[in-house]
Design goal:
The complex is a heterodimer of chains A (459) and B (194).
Chain A lengths: L2 H11 L6 H4 E5 L4 E3 L7 E2 L2 H6 L8 H11 L8 H9 L5 H7 L1 H4 L2 H5 L11 E5 L17 H10 L12 H5 L12 H16 L2 E5 L7 H13 L7 E5 L6 H16 L5 E6 L5 H7 L5 H14 L4 E8 L7 H15 L10 E7 L13 H16 L14 H15 L7 H19 L3 H4 L4 H9 L1
Parallel strand pairs in A: 1-4, 4-5, 5-6, 6-7, 7-8, 8-9
Antiparallel strand pairs in A: 1-2, 2-3
Chain B lengths: L1 E3 L5 E3 L23 E9 L7 E7 L3 E6 L2 E7 L4 E6 L8 E9 L3 E6 L2 E7 L12 E4 L16 E10 L2 E6 L4 E2 L2 E2 L9 E3 L1
Antiparallel strand pairs in B: 1-12, 2-11, 2-16, 3-8, 3-12, 4-5, 4-11, 5-6, 6-7, 8-9, 9-10, 12-13, 14-15, 15-16
Chain lengths: 459, 194
């Protein structure tokens, strides 16, 4: 089914209809938060709801009210990422891409004819067991990184107009992550739900923190290793920053080898992240060793001939100068590792999304000449493009290219609600303090933004 | 130079790779609703007596073939494809220039080495319309379709597509990226391997 056909089908129910609200869930168990896709902010899972029914990790009352709006032809406010894309460009929004997934569109009739009150067992589940992480990426925060918690507890929030990453409001909102050694009722509810959930899952994905630093990740892998006959068709996906200690990486690769080579899962996909190259990538993804990253990606693709590595790139203001080089590197790996065994045909994919928050790191703060570099990156991907994927060819897909091009649309389509001046001011405050706390040097790392930095620091 | 060899034609169809990019793909200007000029420098290397297609504008067939004892210019006016039989104007191993000039609501002027060979009046008619027209070089059809292929060996030296005096695609075939010829206008209107 084409994107256009899916959009028409969704619009037949209502202009705000998106199947992801039913079929998909991301559960941040370290904070007790949940949302269906990553665009709307996660909301708190009431403990009383999971005590009655552990599936309330997904089927919260809050979410059911949003489903009601969609079924009644309304556009839920929390989904404005997609409404912006649809209203400001001719691109399809993520509600179309997400609803197009086979595990989603196949449930269309069941969902369209259901009551908003009905519990729905998700087909696609993402879970974060813990915020334990050895990185503290510039755009991340304490909810997802224990390193960020340490920094904020030591230095306090960044002194931007938004008090970036202030932890007090997390405490007030009861969103502070559980520490790894604390008892977590959400993780307990998960393990209670898991045997039932596992049997019907299409896709299960573990995110973080850094999942390889969580014992629950290995518990899941071992559970699947021992109980795979309950669901031999599972698509398993695991995130990793590709920068964990060697011993953990070895253990992980051994388990992945068992699951993949012995067909204990239908497919195994590794997700990782990077959105630039070399020092600029290391600046943004603080903790990253860029060389180790690619060494591990190369090792995965070499030792696990069936797996695909998917790079989730959060395109931000600091990505523009080296994203073209990243595209070259991804293309090189596509070429090197193409074989006829990969689950997803392609050895490696570049999945580009734009950063909305923190807004001071958004591409919308940039000067026009820098925004043009995004278009150049999209053009490069287009030249590396292929019309159809087959096991005997390689290149960038239509979707990979469109998603990069969409960053440009987003960058130049600055909304009137986006205060460029304020965000630029926050950007300068942020990088100054970042450098001071972490011993980095923004201007040395990003000489292309020196003039921008000096001008906005004065102004 | 782009070396096109029998069985491996190339295609001008930049909009086929990505739904929304390039922003304004030049192949769509060949849909019959815009005036345009195709300017192609090439050398035919094939001296066999088989029918050979230099280029074909699809899916509403227009194009140029070389056959035994004659060349054939073809154009589609939306109702059918017409043929004009010409003497052999394209000779093997000799660099040749052809120009296909289409003026909306007026007609077609077709030249070989700057000599006008065909004039077609098209009042109230246009070139056959299609959503996403494309040009195949070195074949009359896609290899997978397995008919009217007329494969040949040609070297393309230069290709230029002009619409309203603006060059929308220009190739001298010196730079290639992943089996695509780089468009010197930087509009990403590339020519690629099928």
């Amino acid at each position: 089914m084409t994107s256009r056909e899916v959009k028409d089908k969704l619009d037949g129910v209502g202009c705000g209809m998106c199947l992801a609200k039913w079929t998909q869930v991301t559960m941040h168990l370290s904070t007790g938060m949940t949302h269906s896709c990553h665009h709307p902010a996660p909301h708190k899972i009431p403990l009383r709801e999971i005590r009655r029914n552990p599936s309330a990790l997904h089927n919260t009352r809050f979410k059911k009210m949003k489903r009601k709006e969609m079924l009644e032809g309304k556009r839920p406010d929390e989904c404005n990422y997609c409404w912006n894309v649809e209203d400001n460009s001719d691109s399809f929004s993520d509600r179309v891409f997400k609803s197009s997934e086979p595990w989603s569109i196949d449930s269309f009739d069941e969902i369209a004819n259901s009551s908003w009150k009905t519990d729905f067992n998700p087909k696609y589940v993402e879970v974060s067991f813990s915020n334990t992480c050895n990185f503290k990426c510039a755009y991340c925060g304490p909810q997802y990184s224990s390193k960020w918690v340490e920094e904020i507890e030591k230095h306090g929030p960044y002194k931007t107009s938004t008090n970036f990453n202030q932890i007090d409001s997390l405490r007030e909102r009861d969103e502070m992550p559980f520490k790894q050694n604390e008892e977590n009722p959400y993780v307990e509810a998960f393990w209670e739900w898991w045997p039932d959930l596992y049997k019907d899952l299409h896709t299960f994905r573990i995110t973080g923190g850094e999942p390889l630093l969580s014992k629950d990740t290995f518990k899941v892998l071992e559970y699947i290793r021992d109980n795979w006959e309950d669901n031999p068709n599972l698509s398993l996906a695991i995130n990793t920053n590709m920068n964990v200690p060697t011993k953990l990486m070895e253990k992980f690769i051994t388990l992945c080898n068992d699951l993949s080579n012995n067909n204990k899962v239908r497919e195994l996909i590794i997700f990782t992240s990077v959105e630039g190259t070399n020092k600029q990538a290391e600046y943004t993804r603080f903790g990253l060793n860029y060389e180790t990253f690619w060494k591990n990606v190369d090792r995965f693709l070499t030792e696990l001939p069936k797996i695909t590595v998917n790079i989730m790139a959060t395109f931000n203001a600091l990505s523009v100068f080296t994203y073209g080089e990243l595209i070259d590197k991804v293309f090189e790996m596509k070429k090197k590792h193409q074989n006829n065994q990969r689950y997803w045909v392609s050895a490696i994919q570049l999945d580009t999304a734009y950063l909305r928050w923190p807004s001071h790191l958004s591409v919308q703060i940039l000067d026009d000449e820098h925004k043009q570099l995004i278009l150049k990156s999209a053009e490069k991907a287009l030249y590396y493009g292929i019309k159809t994927y087959k096991h005997d060819n390689y290149g960038f897909s239509n979707v990979e290219i469109q998603k990069i091009k969409r960053i440009y649309d987003y960058a130049v389509g600055v909304s009137v609600l986006f205060d460029v001046k304020k965000n630029r001011k926050d950007f300068i405050k942020f990088v100054d303090e970042y450098d001071q706390r972490r011993g980095t040097n923004f201007v040395e790392t990003f000489p292309q933004l020196k003039e921008f930095y000096v001008r906005n620091k004065k102004g | 130079m782009l070396e096109i060899r029998k069985g491996n034609p190339w295609i001008f169809w930049p909009s086929s790779i990505c739904d929304t990019f390039p922003l304004d793909p030049a192949n769509k200007k060949l849909n019959g609703k815009f005036s345009f000029t195709l300017d192609i420098d090439f050398t035919l290397l094939d001296d066999t007596e088989c029918k050979k297609t230099i280029f074909s504008l699809l899916p509403m067939y227009s194009g140029y073939d070389c056959d035994k004892g004659c060349d054939i210019f073809l154009y589609n006016d939306g109702e059918k494809t017409h043929t004009k039989v010409l003497p052999n104007l394209v000779h093997p191993n000799k660099k040749t220039n052809i120009k296909f000039k289409y003026i909306y609501n007026k007609g077609i002027e077709f030249s070989v080495d700057n000599n006008i060979q065909v004039r077609v009046e098209m009042k109230n008619k246009t070139l056959g319309y299609s959503e996403s027209p494309h040009i195949i070089f070195g074949a009359g059809n896609f290899p997978k379709n397995n008919f009217n292929l007329n494969y040949t060996d040609i070297d393309l030296h230069e290709f230029k597509l002009t619409v309203n005096d603006e060059i929308l695609s220009h190739h001298t075939f010196e730079k290639f990226i992943h089996d695509k010829s780089f468009d010197l206008t930087e509009n990403c209107n590339f020519i690629h391997k099928i």
